[in-house]
Amino acid sequence: MEKQNLFKWKHYQPDVILLTVRWYLRYNLSFRDLVEMMGERGLCMAHTTIMRWVHQYGPELDERVRRHLKLTNDSWRVDETYVKVKGQWTYLYRAVDSEGNTIDFYLSKTRNKQAAKRFFKKALAFSHVSTPRAITVDKNPAYPIAIQELKEEKKMPKGIEVRQSKYLNNIVEQDHRFIKKRLSTMLSLKSFRTAKAIISGIEVMHMIKKKQVYQEVKSVPNQVRFIHQLFGIAS
């Protein structure tokens, strides 16, 4: 999407929109917190306006950042955690490499072999993801079955080692904390579609925080400048 189309008909400048989106996805703030903070800057907006921005630009940010991610290593650590959507528990599949870099994530209504296969296929489709040499999983029996079927379908190399070890998976369980902490402060996720949009934005901000992008974005000003560049906005 071109810049003029992406922000067309918006009543606020693109940098203001991205500021509220970035703050919401990165920090433990509510939409109403952001309304008050923008009010201090002389900007009057409704919390539903910011909510719509997050739903629209969170996935767009995820898509644009993916092109700039560093290559992950070939040792995967895979686990799933629970996320409540519209009062029902859903499953957030996540994978990191042995250095803690996020490989990918996938929100699913089910926790079974089919969901695991969809997650692995999604992860392997990205250019920043190395083909796994070893995949460490927990005791969930769906993972080995899903991996074996993907090998038979020639979607995964046959030589991949599958390890079931809770100790080795501590790194991904610890990485869940940032995502869970941010989601726990939200009142609720109202629908599966909006949950995916918000989580994609939270995950990509977490990747930036972990310095997974090629550009030098160690400081917050550099992170802001990087995001503005992605959307074609002069800092």
From TrEMBL:
Family annotation (Gene3D superfamilies): Ribonuclease H-like superfamily/Ribonuclease H (3.30.420.10)
Keyword tags: DNA recombination, DNA-binding, Transposition
Pfam family, one: DDE_Tnp_IS240
GO MF annotations in UniProt: DNA binding
Domain of life where this protein originates: Bacteria
A GO biological-process term: DNA integration
Transmembrane segments: none
Record-linked InterPro entries: DDE_dom, Integrase_cat-core, IS_Transposase, RNaseH-like_sf, RNaseH_sf, Transpos_IS6
Domain Integrase catalytic: 55-235
PANTHER family recorded: BLL1675 PROTEIN
Stated role: Involved in the transposition of the insertion sequence.
The protein's name in its UniProt record: IS6 family transposase
Species the sequence originates in: Priestia megaterium
